[in-house]
Amino acid sequence: MPESIRFATAEDLPRLIEVSLASFGEITWQRTVDRLFGPLNGYDWRDRWRRRVERALAEQTFLAAVENERIVGYACGTVDRSLGLSHIDILAVDPAAQGRGHGRRLLSAILDYFRSQGATHVTLESLVDNEAANALYRKEGFHQVASHFNWFRKITAGS
């Protein structure tokens, strides 16, 4: 693994959350949920992202890109060894560090890790309008196999 990529630890959680909020703040569909429905049980989109990253760090492999001793991005995911199938859950690069190859290096590093764990295939999801990420995935040999809608509604009594 290149020196600029390392496994993330629990001590990194605050910075991983910062990177997530900065990276996805402009594109997350969770902001639309807040606009339409308000915070969910008092948790706004930022709170929900924090909880997602906390859960992911506890359950997944996390690789962090470090520049000048500061985390500038990360990739996390899982491997199902019986299927040989890995999944990239989140790949995030701080907007202040984008355009310097961190996303490509993280993608390469997590694929190397998955390969070392017996994975032969990888899947990930990306929003249609996340043009920078989608361009990277295309360049790195990923194939779009489906598109889907993300539906959301409030559950009320009798509905």
Gyration radius, in Å: 16 Å
Largest sheet: 5 strands, mixed
Find the structural class using helix and strand composition: alpha+beta
Low-confidence stretches: none
Could you name the CATH class?
Answer: Alpha Beta
Beta-strand proportion: 15-25%
What is the number of helices? 5
How far apart the termini lie comes to 51 Å
CATH topology: Aminopeptidase
pLDDT averaged residue by residue: 95
CATH superfamily: Gcn5-related N-acetyltransferase (GNAT)
Number of domains: 1
Number of strands: 5
Structure summary:
The protein has helices spanning 13-24, 30-37, 45-59, 102-116, 131-139; strands at residues 5-7, 61-67, 70-80, 85-93, 121-124. The protein is α+β, with helices and mostly antiparallel strands. Helix 4 (102-116) links the parallel strand 4 and strand 5 (121-124).
Descriptive tags:
alpha+beta; Aminopeptidase; 159 residues
Tell me what you see in this structure.
- This protein has 159 residues and is of the alpha+beta class.
- The protein has a single domain, classed as Aminopeptidase, CATH 3.40.630.30.
- It contains five helices and five strands.
- It has a five-stranded mixed β-sheet, sandwiched between helices.
- Helix 4 links the parallel strand 4 (85-93) and strand 5.
- Helix 1 crosses helix 3.
- The chain is globular and about 50 Å long.
- The N and C termini lie far apart (51 Å).
- The mean pLDDT is 95.
